[in-house]
Amino acid sequence: MNPTHLLYQEDARKLSCSAQVETVFSQDGKDIVVLDQTIFQPHDDNMARDKGIILSSTGEFVVEQVQLLDDIVYHIGFFRHGMFPAFNKGRFTSGTTVECRVHAESRSNTELF
Q1: Topology of 5-108 in CATH?
Q2: Within a 10 A sphere around the Cβ of 22, how many other Cβ atoms?
Q3: Dihedral of the CA atoms 88, 96, 67, 40 (nearest 10)?
Q4: Is the distance from CB of 89 to CB of 59 less than 8 angstroms?
Q5: d(Cα 31, Cα 62) in Å, to the nearest integer?
């Protein structure tokens, strides 16, 4: 996998972006999404973590935690299943274009470098 392009380092105020899905997998009961680029700032012991959603025409992913390991950002959370069947289309697949949206309140609790 290629390193994740860290858009939050270019503009810390930016709260949304488009990206492409590199891979999706599950581990320890959580779903994990890897993108080619992200605005989600990874968790660090000294700061809060970004939270938000990743959207596509095939589903919605709730980002609960973000981790950086070996230059790759892992978005950890779950695929949301709502009350309306049209929104329950499922998981993302590699190559899918998605919209990333950081919740502003989680970013305001994160100290940016």
Answers
A1: Elongation Factor Tu (Ef-tu); domain 3 (2.40.30)
A2: 19
A3: -90
A4: yes
A5: 10
How far is residue 39's CA from residue 50's CA, in Å, rounded to a whole number?
9
List C-alpha distances in Å: 36 to 45, 55, 65: 24, 15, 17
Query: Is 20 in contact with 14 (CB distance < 8 Å)?
Result: no
Residues of the chain with pLDDT > 70, as a percent, come to: 81
Q: Regarding beta strands 30-35 and 59-69, do their DSSP bridges make them parallel or antiparallel, or are they unpaired?
A: unpaired
pLDDT given at position 88: 47
CA 57 – CA 59 distance, rounded (Å):
6
CA atoms within 13 A on the CB side of 34: 17
Q: Is 13 exposed, middle or buried (0-12, 13-18, 19+ CB in 10 A)?
A: exposed
